[in-house]
Design a protein that fits this description.
The protein has 102 residues and is mainly alpha-helical. The protein contains 3 helices and no strands. It comes from Daubentonia madagascariensis (Aye-aye).
Length: 102
């Protein structure tokens, strides 16, 4: 249990923290408005930012080790699948050729 004095101290601290949070929110809001103004002056807009973010993310992904390994594995698998389909096609063609001769 808290004494009355401790409760009063905590209430005072709570009020002070709430005031600080309010002040910080106001400062953040002002900085966000200023950021928007600067971006507008520089001709930056949401679409440009999205394009830049997408381009950077795409580049980062393509240069990642995981992407390179996956790309290499899928490329190799694709080559093997192409060869397998080619062999199946050749076998089917041969079979039809044998059937025509009979």
């Amino acid at each position: 249990m808290l004494s009355e004095e401790e409760k009063e101290e905590l209430k005072a601290e709570l009020v002070q923290l709430e005031e600080e949070i309010t002040t910080l929110r106001q400062v953040l809001s002002a900085k966000e408005r200023h950021l928007v103004e600067i971006k507008q002056k520089l001709g930056m807009n949401l679409m440009n930012e999205l394009k830049q973010n997408f381009s950077k993310s795409w580049h980062d992904m393509q240069t990642s080790t995981a992407y390179k390994k996956t790309h290499e594995t899928l490329s190799h698998a694709g080559q093997k699948a192409t060869a397998a389909f080619s062999n199946v096609g050749t076998a089917i063609s041969k079979k039809f050729g044998d059937m025509r001769r009979k």
